[in-house]
Amino acid sequence: MKVLVINCGSSSLKYQVLDMDGEILMAKGLVERIGLDGSVIRHEKVGQDKFVNETPMKDHKEAIKQVLDAIVDQEHGVLKSMAEIGAVGHRVVHAGEKYACSVMINDDVIKALEECVELAPLHNPPNLLGINACKELMPDIPMVGVFDTAFHQTMPPESYIYAIPFDYYTKYGIRRYGFHGTSHKYVAQRASEILNVNLDDLKIITCHLGNGASLSAIKRGKCIDTSMGFTPLEGLVMGTRCGDLDPAIVSYIREKENLPFGQVNEILNKKSGVLGISGVSSDFRDLEDAAAEGNERAQLALKVFSHRVRFYIGAYIAEMNGVDAIVFTAGLGENSINMRDIICNDLGNLGIKLDLVKNRIRGKEAIISRDDSPVKVILIPTNEELMIARDTVDIIAGETKK
Ligand code: ADP
Asked: How far apart are CA 390 and CA 122, in angstroms?
């Protein structure tokens, strides 16, 4: 089956076409500046050619129309007609407590996701625009929703309940949800394949370290804790997000700087993290360069970042009473030799012994711990699109069996 995977942002859209009969990536692309001047689609027929088309796209429907045109284009396309698409898999950020796994999208699902808009005001609306546009343009092709929050729905209450009046949970749904679930699930499954050990017999800590960053504790294939919370602001220090904070700081900053509440939220989301500490950049490559040149605040930002990752690793080892594997993934986790080294440094008493030579690798699957390390440290490039396409095929197969 050929699956179209769609990941819609507010003004951008990423897509891939996969032939799931061999899990082969056929085409991928990115649409940018939807609804703005200079809308552009960058399409790649994998391994063959790339083309760029700057053309007005006033909304997501027009963007998806461009994607479909590119996919069936005589020269750059990979399919003869749209009818070859067996299903569309949509990445959706927030499904609240409603869905613990991927589902076939129907009107009830769309309604449930609309109800989650309050929980993810930046992400769910563009995800829904993508779903509705596909529904209009391809009414006969089944669609599956794959949710960032779903994998974390197995957390026990002690991991997801905040210590605030319980009514706020029952009335407003305030609890830990967790994000990046598709990535955590994918790399945990790959880790079990690489180690040739059943997921049911493994305790894994997955470190998704990108611009947004989160850790998950995965015991017997189920997520039992994760560092992001009610929103993707909690947990680790990130590129521009503050991560864990004494909540009293919010009202204190607001008072001292005489700021409206929304602005404090904006500062904590967009001007904090390693950018806020360093004043240099949110990009870890810039920070590593600045730190190497002696910039003390860049050095401090990297230290604070790694301190928090180590803090969570320790916590999750305690929660699971041990760990068999630690997985690094996403932009920083896959590429920063230096950061993996700092994070794993001096953890020998916990059974974590990084091999400094094997660690000299970027963006490729590899076991990077020493042969005598009781805990395996593994580098696994994430592949959320493949995970979405796999779930899409599974859900469609389940539906046809019914
Ligand atoms: P997101 O999907 O959350 O935007 P990514 O997973 O693409 O993020 O990760 C982006 C981050 O990865 C960038 O901030 C960059 O700092 C980091 N990164 C990418 N390549 C390298 C590298 N070679 N060395 C250090 N950091 C890197």
From this structure: 26
